[in-house]
Amino acid sequence: MRASDTLPAWAGALRLGLRSAADLLLPPQCMLCSTEVDAPGRLCAACWPRLRFVAEPCCPTCGTPYAIPVPAGLVCGACLQEAPAYGRARAAFVYADGGRDLVLRFKRGDRTDLAPGLARLMHAAGRALLADCDLILPVPLHRGRLWRRRYNQSALLATALGRLAGRPVRLDLLERRRATPSLGRHGRIERRRILSGAIGISAAGRGDVRGRRILLVDDVLTSGATASACCRVLLRAGAAGVDVLTLARVVRAEQGTI
Ligand SMILES: [Zn+2]
Ligand SMILES: [Zn+2]
Fold this sequence. Notes:
- Residues 22-80 form the Double zinc ribbon domain.
- The chain is of the alpha/beta class.
- Helix content is 35%, strand content 13%.
- It has one domain (51-249): Rossmann fold (3-Layer(aba) Sandwich), CATH 3.40.50.
- Strand 5, helix 9 and strand 6 (241-249) form a beta-alpha-beta unit.
- The termini are far apart.
- The protein binds zinc ion (2 copies).
- One zinc ion (ZN) binds next to helix 2.
């Protein structure tokens, strides 16, 4: 995927262009509603509590927040049962309520202008991961889906995050070799089978992975299957380590209670 692949088609570009022009004329609005705020990419006082930010205590590996106080460094049951392919995963907020609305606005509502504000939230949540990485990569989107959606939301987040953190971003290193169905209703083993061979390193990226500490960026961490598939590919190619930073993460009812 080239950097230009993340740009929308002309119709989208026109709409976004008009929005950008309007943004210059209108006072900045909250990322979730139309309330006026101090600067672009901010949330208003009423919307801020609608987001459940991920904070300590959380699993040091997968970043699942615990509902009760636990000793520092306590690894969750799921990670003890099977260690994820990645080193650490962190997210800015839980994918529920206002967090879900915000992700859907960005992802399905053509609100690409939200990327810098959202990246700022990720930057705060992933400070330790960003400090340790020397390359940021977005989870790739298959060409067919990219054509329909017109932009890769993970690439927009990765680009904005790289700018904030002063770290290089490569949009063309990982590639989605075939489209995969939604993984939601499949079990762990089936998800791994579906993703097998679906993600690889592009010809342009070969040789650029060995010894690098990589931060993989995505919009939502659900089962972690896609992030893990990317991690396995990168580790096989000699990456020194791979962490994962997402905007939001799904927390199931049985999680977060240890
Ligand atoms: Zn608001
Ligand atoms: Zn965990």
